[in-house]
Amino acid sequence: xxxxxxxxxxxxxxxxxxxxxxxxxxxxxxxxxxxxxxxxxxxxxxxxxxxxxxxxxxxxxxxxxxxxxxxxxxxxxxxxxxxxxxxxxxxxxxxxxxxxxxxxxxxxxxxxxxxxxxxxxxxxxxxxxxxxxxxxxxxxxxxxxxxxxxxxxxxxxxxxxxxxxxxxxxxxxxxxxxxxxxxxxxxxxxxxxxxxxxxxxxxxxxxxxxxxxxxxxxxxxxxxxxxxxxxxxxxxx
Amino acid sequence: xxxxxxxxxxxxxxxxxxxxxxxxxxxxxxxxxxxxxxxxxxxxxxxxxxxxxxxxxxxxxxxxxxxxxxxxxxxxxxxxxxxxxxxxxxxxxxxxxxxxxxxxxxxxxxxxxxxxxxxxxxxxxxxxxxxxxxxxxxxxxxxxxxxxxxxxxxxxxxxxxxxxxxxxxxxxxxxxxxxxxxxxxxxxxxxxxxxxxxxxxxxxxxxxxxxxxxxxxxxxxxxxxxxxxxx
Lengths: 237, 231
Fold this sequence. Notes:
The complex is a heterodimer of chains A (237) and B (231).
Chain A: H1 3-18, E1 27-31, E2 39-42, E3 55-58, H2 76-85, E4 91-95, H3 101-105, E5 127-128, H4 130-134, H5 145-155, E6 160-163, E7 167-172, H6 175-198, H7 206-209, H8 222-232
Parallel strand pairs in A: 5-6
Antiparallel strand pairs in A: 1-2, 1-4, 2-3, 4-7, 6-7
Chain B: H1 3-16, E1 25-29, E2 36-39, E3 52-55, H2 73-82, E4 88-92, H3 98-102, E5 122-124, H4 126-129, H5 141-151, E6 156-159, E7 163-168, H6 171-194, H7 220-228
Parallel strand pairs in B: 5-6
Antiparallel strand pairs in B: 1-2, 1-4, 2-3, 4-7, 6-7
Helix pairs in contact in B: 1-6, 2-5
């Protein structure tokens, strides 16, 4: 595999760890550049500590490819399920960011677009409850393809989905977009909580939440963010 | 690593992660002649191996010492006596759980990493257990035994207006549980402010008593917390 993808994956791990989106747990993956049915994900190690040698390859069913005695993340089926259902997705992060967890259990309030950063939430992000299909006595981990597929169905075409009492899954076109989306998700969730304590709000209109047609193609801010985040994580030039 | 090394690390990690501050303490069951190992009275983040002392089942030091001791060491003594499955104990005043120690809203598992809390953490109230007495501290073995009874088979208990005790099979498990407890309390408090919320179902919570050696698994959390604490 190309070294740069492996290094970009390690950088994404370290950035998300450094920024507090991932802590001891959670993980981020990328589609295999040479085999889009496969994906790259690290061995079970805290994201902030991963190194290039920790990167493993998995097949479409979440099976470890090649000869390795490394321990994989139990929940690699989250990634396998999303890649299978979403040809448009090239990178996936599963996290337990503190800011979104209350929204994952709330029956009163949905995580929704509040500020520009969280426009991708639209009028509410989907919430997957493992108990709906797999009963109320699981350990809540996504342990097999069936559960990964169920989660992917709940996510649908959305960029962000919540998992009840557990965390979120964030999908994107590439690693840089997923990293930016994770940070936007965190900012959006925190802003929404603050907004709620302030009283009446100036909410986005449906027209404002519609996909932007006015931005020129390639006008992405993700590369600027990437340079900044690399620098903050001690990985800059 | 040795049990003393793990216990020093647990002290420093829990201090670094803000579970413990100037106060609070964490102990481990002793592999030696005494009942348990606990530091002399010192802030956990500063504890070194030379600070560890061996205590007898009654909570007194095995070897007489002139060093100041934690007044609440009886919490540990009583729990080790009552719970053969417990290998480590933490007493903390973590800010996130304190409101739940006073509120009638029970602290309960709302995130999967804190499955050990269960459907409602018990609250031990010294004033109710010992009518006519009042003490801000668990400074006798009788108080400790009463608290241990309230803990029962559970993984944690709250002390009204005071803090909590968290138990586990070893210092690592106690560290992971304390961190998960803190996150759970913060999530639950916010969700409560938002309105109705779905906690973990009973079947999603861990069976409270879980004896035997820790389940074999990757050790990524311990590596993570050691590094963060500069160890």
